[in-house]
Design goal:
Length: about 300
Amino acid sequence: MDLRMPLFFSPRFSTTVRLLMGLAGHRLAFRLLSPLAPRRAGKRARRLFLTPPQHRFRKAELDALEEASLLTVPMPTGRLVGWRWGRAQDPIVVLVHGWGGRAAQLRSYVAPLTARGYSVVAFDAPGHGMTGGRESSIVHMAAALEAMLRHVGPVEALIGHSVGGAVAGYVLSRGAQVKKAVLLAPPASLTEYSHRFARLLWLPESVRALMQAQIERRFGIRWSDFEVEATAPRLTQPALIVHDIDDRDNPFRDGELTARHWPGARLVATHGLGHRGALYDSAVISEVTGFLGNAEKHGATAK
């Protein structure tokens, strides 16, 4: 008798079923609401768009955080939770996770960077991980990154994954004093990102546009301000952009577009890593650490 757990009772299968059932429910709701109550549909879409997915921490992530010093930074939206690896007096690299991610996802970069003499800082953005909260957005994430940069002092480099890469570019375009930037699988357009969101939920364009207008009005921003064509041409920092040909979340052309508009940026194309493989791939990590080089100790400021 085979006593192994059947597939349909496995945690992974159960999670997948819940996600699919939830997606089907949202699609049905929008199909009913969109023609009858478009404003309600727009409000529902806005709430979903501003709600990052939550995932349980893995043991490897918690183990990595145990090796770091805890940082807490006050923000208007609540306390921002972050961590520091390495010596506080060493030059700093800040890691920025993507949408629905968390700081510990970039843990594979910590040891190679500290070995090169850097102090590594990472944080969970509002609505994510241990910082918590129910709502987030690129505005929340940008404010969190700016708050962390002010807290830790001079920063040598930013490494941002996915939406975290777009956030890094936006913050740099607002004048953040950082010497280098690495973007892993960045999206090039918040508007196009919302179109992919709309296609997933079967939202008609009228509801997607209404959702965008509601978000812009609420935060007092224009999505066009976050487009790579608006942010990247103002940047002077050397930049390395790593993007996979097979990325299904942010297509490779987003990396190409980012590199094209960022003066002097270098694009590295990978194969077979998908959207998240650059977080762990040893060849990518070697490329990134080589680009950053060894820390220059004379530029360090203790905090």
